[in-house]
Design brief:
The chain is an alpha+beta fold and 644 residues long. It has 20 helices and 20 strands.
């Protein structure tokens, strides 16, 4: 067959001579008319035939000839011409196609926005994918899928079992679309990914749950785009929504959100504080950002910042800001469309599309929030003053993602970076580190004690000290130091240091060499003292054979009698020129709490003598429980080889 416009003969098989459906050519599911894909012949014969003005023979031949001429002209011929390979971008092909399907003018907006326009959605999808993956260069997967859908968007197949007058609605199912487009140069995974993007972005592509079809009426996407443009004219509401989302995900944490002034960021909080900076902080010039950060680290309003070692600034990533804004902008637009569904006369299908699009944009927004803050600035002291120390997610990917509600765990992710990955904030500190950092036992005169409040202040104030997650870390370190005999502890009023180099504190208030609960450590009024500066029970200055007594208030409010008896073998060692005392005998009565305090003194005596002899007597007016006496008292002593 030849037309006057052809530059060469083009041989095709007339559609009217194509074998009937029952006559299959081996290896194909549809009749074959080379060089045309069986599906292209089938869509004209079976689907376009339902269009009253379609000429099954001449119309089909004119259309096919126009396609071949365009392919020859563009030198983009393929092995066979399928529904997705129709050069719809060619003006002659478009004219022939829409003339045959009876829609010459109504689909100009469809082509311009979704297929052939300069900024058509299908073209933008292909350009982006090619940029991200050069291996897809030339495939034009999104355009091929969109073109194939367009071919199936007119007419309708005769319903199976019908009397010849009932037709299915126009469109193509996902399975049929893949069968006509997937081939050696287009795999199904790529095709499905592109189809999903087409469904979300095209303005005139409709999906009824079964079939994809282009229509001249806009879909929900266009309504969302229009609302998005309106939202974009007032970016303040976008940023307010982002702030609300951040606050909902960081509520109750040691963090503040979008505080631009140094005076708005708290100081003297005994926990590591993260300040999440404003979005524009991530896009400002580097020098301006560093100057603003140093201002925050050095000052708290008009005064100097004290706890500068307990503060970090979470900086937004510039490349993620617009991605997040776009998702939130669309979320707001979707809400506006949903609020006006009656006014817009949305169908059930459109409502379903709206819900699906909302889920998609919500997921994109959570992903944007999760990746928004991936860098924390910390203060670091050098010879030139305070500089910025950057802690950023690097080689090891962060494991923290979404919670059970599919919300981004923004603060947990930052703390994972600081605590687990970069090790800039610590959850433990050794008692020996407390002694080393605060130089206990050093100096002239030596520092023998320190307030627990000063320990907390030091860790959170001095740059170069370990950054601690919270004050509980200090409590844990002090409790361990008491148990392991690094230092003693007392609470209440700070004791004074006596002329003998011992702190003047009642033994009942002293904790040393015993397990102490972390919650018992008072970080406000507690006091630490070195072991050799702790008070001990001293011998009486009375003469030989005397039995002076003294009292000390116990934890329970009772009083215990303490008797020191000097050995008759020698006089008081306080007398000048006399020999040292060789024997000490102590008798006292104590309850359980007082016994813990007294036991430290007995342990010190054991250190001096090598071994002590202990005689214990206990009386109970009600009588002892034999089982408890045996299991709780006698058996432990036997196991320690103290009694037989």
């Amino acid at each position: 067959w030849r037309t006057s416009r052809c530059t060469q003969f083009v041989e095709v098989r007339s559609v009217s001579t194509v074998p009937p459906r029952a006559e299959r050519i081996q290896g194909y599911g549809e009749p074959l008319g080379y060089p045309f894909h069986p599906a292209l012949i089938a869509v004209m014969r079976e689907q376009w035939a339902a269009i009253p003005d379609f000429q099954r023979t001449r119309g089909a031949l004119r259309f096919l000839a126009a396609c071949l001429r365009a392919c020859k002209r563009e030198e983009k011929s393929r092995a066979v011409l399928g529904p997705g390979d129709v050069p719809i971008y060619d003006a002659e092909v478009r004219l022939a196609f829409f003339k045959e399907v009876g829609q010459q003018a109504d689909y100009q907006a469809v082509l311009e926005s979704d297929l052939t326009g300069v900024n058509a959605r299908a073209k933008r999808i292909d350009d982006r994918r090619t940029k991200e993956s050069p291996s897809e260069t030339g495939k034009r997967a999104a355009f091929r899928l969109a073109t194939a859908i367009l071919m199936y968007s007119f007419g309708g197949r005769r319903r199976d079992g019908a009397n010849g007058t009932e037709f299915l609605p126009p469109g193509i199912t996902e399975a049929e679309l893949l069968s006509v487009c997937v081939g050696p140069d287009l795999d199904s995974t790529t095709a499905l990914a592109c189809l999903k993007e087409l469904k979300e972005r095209c303005l005139y592509l409709h999906f009824d749950g079964v079939r994809y079809c282009f229509k001249k009426d806009p879909n929900v996407t266009l309504l969302i785009e229009q609302e998005s443009d309106a939202v974009g004219r007032d970016e303040r509401q976008v940023e307010e929504r982002i702030k609300e989302m951040l606050e909902a995900r960081i509520t109750g944490r040691n963090a503040v959100i979008w505080r631009a002034k140094s005076g708005d960021i708290p100081d003297k909080e005994s926990s590591f504080m993260v300040s999440y900076m404003l979005l524009n902080f991530g896009t400002d010039a580097r020098t301006g950002r560093e100057a603003a950060a140093k201002e925050i680290f050095e000052n708290y309003g008009n005064s100097s910042r004290k706890y500068r070692n307990g503060l970090g600034l979470a900086v937004p990533a510039a490349e993620q800001i617009e991605i997040l804004r776009r998702s939130v902008r669309y979320l707001l637009a979707i809400e506006h469309v949903r609020d006006k569904w009656k006014q817009l006369n949305l169908t059930d299908e459109q409502k379903s599309q709206l819900r699906e699009r909302e889920h998609t944009e919500a997921a994109a927004a959570e992903s944007g929030l999760l990746k928004l803050y991936a860098e924390v600035w910390l203060p670091k002291v050098t010879a030139d003053g305070i500089v910025i120390d950057v802690s950023a997610a690097g080689g090891r990917p962060l494991q923290t993602t979404l919670n059970d509600k599919k919300q981004a765990r923004v603060h947990d992710r930052i703390m994972e970076l600081l605590v687990d990955v970069q090790r800039r904030v610590f959850t433990t500190v050794n008692p020996s580190k407390v002694i080393e950092l605060f130089k206990l036992g050093e100096g002239n005169p030596p520092t023998l004690g320190i307030k627990t409040s000063e320990v907390v202040d030091g860790f959170y104030s001095f740059l170069g000290f370990p950054r601690l997650l919270s004050g509980a870390v200090v409590q844990k370190a002090i409790a361990a130091g008491i148990k392991d005999r690094f230092f003693g502890y007392c609470s209440g009023a700070a004791p004074t240091l006596g002329s003998d180099g011992k702190y003047q504190v009642p033994l009942s208030r002293l904790r040393f060499n015993i397990p102490v609960g972390e919650d018992e450590i008072d970080l406000e009024s507690g006091f630490l003292m070195m072991p050799h500066a702790m008070p001990v029970a001293a011998p009486s200055a009375a003469g030989p054979g005397s039995e002076p007594t003294g009292t000390a208030a116990g934890d329970s409010g009772s009083e215990s009698a303490l008797t020191l008896t000097q050995s008759p073998d020698g006089p008081d060692d306080s007398s000048p020129g006399d020999t040292a005392q060789r024997s000490v005998e102590i008798n006292f009565s104590a309850d359980r709490n007082q016994l813990f305090t007294a036991w430290n003194a007995v342990a010190n005596l054991a250190d001096l003598a090598g071994k002590v002899n202990i005689s214990v007597r206990a009386d109970s007016p009600e009588g002892f429980d034999k089982s408890k006496l045996q299991n709780g008292v006698m058996e432990p002593l036997r196991e320690a080889d103290l009694i037989k």
